[in-house]
Design brief:
Blueprint: E1 8-11, E2 14-17, E3 29-32, H1 35-41, H2 46-53, E4 59-70, E5 77-84, E6 89-90, E7 102-111, H3 112-115, H4 119-129, H5 144-153, H6 155-160, H7 166-170, H8 188-194, E8 207-216, H9 219-225, E9 231-238, H10 241-261, E10 274-275, H11 279-314, E11 324-330, E12 332-341, E13 344-353, E14 356-357, E15 376-379, E16 387-392, H12 394-399, E17 403-404, H13 414-420, H14 423-432, E18 436-439, H15 442-447, H16 456-465, E19 469-482
Parallel strand pairs: 3-4, 18-19
Antiparallel strand pairs: 1-2, 2-3, 4-5, 5-13, 6-10, 7-9, 7-11, 8-9, 8-19, 12-13, 14-17, 15-16, 16-19
Helix pairs in contact: 4-11, 5-11, 8-10, 10-11
Length: 483
Amino acid sequence: MVRIQDLTRISAYEWEIPKSFRNDMRVPVRIFSTHEMLENSLDDRSLEQAINAATLPGLVGAVTIMPDMHQGYGFPIGGVAATEFPNGVISPRAIGYDINCGVRLLASSIEAEAALPYLEMLSVRLNQLCPSGVGTDGIVNLALPELDHVLKEGSHWAFKNGYANETDLRRTEENGMLTGAKPEKVSDRARKRGKSQLGSLGAGNHFIEVDVVDEIFNEKAASTMGLHTGMLAVQIHCGSRGLGHQICSDYVQEFQTAIQRYGIKVPDRELVCAPMDSPEGVAYLGAMRAAANFAFANRQLLAHAARQAFVDVFAGHFKDWQLHQVYDIAHNMGKLEFHEVEGRRLKVCVHRKGATRAFGPGAPGLPPEYQEIGQPVLVPGSMGTASWVLVGTRTSMLRSFGSSCHGARRVMSRSQAKKEIHGNRLRLELEDRGIHVQAGSMSELAEEAPQAYKDVDMVVETVTKVDIARKVARLMPVVVIKG
């Protein structure tokens, strides 16, 4: 059991669990948090999981924990860890079940005030065009050979098939395609689960949201992104669906024996891992990248459907109804990147689980228009509350492996939320506040109630205080689509 007295307080927003805390730790744990949020985190096992994560072979720097941390499977959600390539390990649970779960933001020039009479119609049309719910089929049902193209090409497959434009690709992390994907390392069961789900939202905390740009904090960055006060924007939050979940399950099972072959000891069997240069590690990296490409294509198809909904609802009423892409980011991913660690430039695999890449100005891989301002960082709030657009900083490259937070911290379990919150009542409360809700299940709506999450504003304030991200704009919801 970790106590707050066990932590070294570095500042009002930064804490450390030293490497000496437990004799099997290879690196310290660094936590970005306020005292209040940290005390709340003691209610679950997230700090214990962070300490366990600090035992993984090949780690460099520190295991870094974001202020939206909460307990996950083996590895805490909101965690970042880097292992040196090629001998360090890759751990599937340090990336997560929903591989490349992420967020896409689209912006418009439609004034929210003028759009008010059409929002109910827009919510219905979005719900019709964007499939959602547990096990739901997607916009396209692929033959298995065509699925392989998606797994290798990601958003580039969508571009070739008329679902994307060049700006969409340029403004997507890794241009919407991770190289090195190996569809042949994806199991038949995973492929069968994914073949019918491309272009679907799923359930849980996934959503499509129409927002209004409520306030701008950095005019230059916001203008570069095409965000303007009072205009509508669209967020899409989802990942690799059943395919990614199955890939994680398959390799967690396979790695149970791999750790024995390589003599690796972990304090929690959910943290199973394999060296990146081992046959098992190479296979998982190839399968994970395939799932990531599926997720990029998945969000791209949903963006295409959202654009069609805007055409259907607004084309006869507004001169400019188009949605342009701001950015698309992942927050469950393992990426090979170069980072400076203790004065050395190292190639590492950065595991981000519930954490967002937040590269600063001038970082390689950013589109030309974002080179000066840094990478957009998208931080959705809980349903019915604010979401944030931030930018990464040069400081993040040195302090958090170019990473920041990904959302609001969950403080109520899904089962507890369903017991305490009535879905129909919640829907009426949101609609009284002018938020149009389309949901397939009232129980799942209750699971994602705002009171089930920590205040996202506190999370954002913390990452800005430690300068791993900076505020650009705040968004407020007017339409919510959930499975």
